[in-house]
């Protein structure tokens, strides 16, 4: 553990191989089985963070209750207000992810600018290249969702195999999906 400026209020930290370049880590109850955590500026208010292999390049991560089973989480600027984030293999290149209750079972989530206000996002294999995804209650069981500019205000989107076309087509697709699938 080197290059860390402030680490306080952490109850248990064990089984971590490398933790360096972190400025502030406080208010974390349990952090274990993490291989690499570096270049994080602020990580606070997290209750449990375990089973993560790589977490780096994150500026702010706070108010997260449980984050576990994630292989790679990097390049994220802000991740806060998330209750549960687990079983995600890759989450990178996301600018803002906040207000999400559950994010789990997702294989790849990258290149998304804003993901907020979503209650449940699970069972999705690939979600990338989306600019804004907010106000969605449930999004699960989707195989591929990418190249969408705006997806918001949709209540339920599940069981879709492919959701990707041009920007305008995607917006229309979302409206049609909301009308016919609730």
Any overview of this molecule?
- The protein is elongated, with a radius of gyration of 17 Å.
- The protein has 182 residues and is mainly beta.
- It has one helix spanning 167-181, and strands at residues 6-8, 12-14, 18-20, 24-26, 30-32, 36-38, 42-44, 48-50, 54-56, 60-62, 66-68, 72-74, 78-80, 84-86, 90-92, 96-98, 102-104, 108-110, 114-116, 120-122, 126-128, 132-134, 138-140, 144-146, 150-152, 156-158, 162-163.
- The chain has 2 domains: 1-86; 93-182.
- The strands form 3 sheets. A 9-stranded parallel beta sheet has the order 1-4-7-10-13-16-19-22-25. A 9-stranded parallel beta sheet has the order 2-5-8-11-14-17-20-23-26.
- The termini are far apart.
Q: Share of helix among residues?
A: under 10%
Strand order of the largest sheet: 1-4-7-10-13-16-19-22-25
Distance between the termini: 50 Å
What is the chains' assembly state?
single chain
SSE pattern: EEEEEEEEEEEEEEEEEEEEEEEEEEEH
Instruction: Give the total of beta strands.
Output: 27
Inertia-based shape: elongated
- Biggest beta sheet summary: 9 strands, parallel
**Stretches where pLDDT falls below 50 for ≥5 residues?**
164-169, 171-182
Overall mean pLDDT stands at 67
Total DSSP helices: 1
Number of domains: 2
Q: Give the radius of gyration.
A: 17 Å
State the secondary-structure class: mainly beta
Share in β-strands: 35-45%
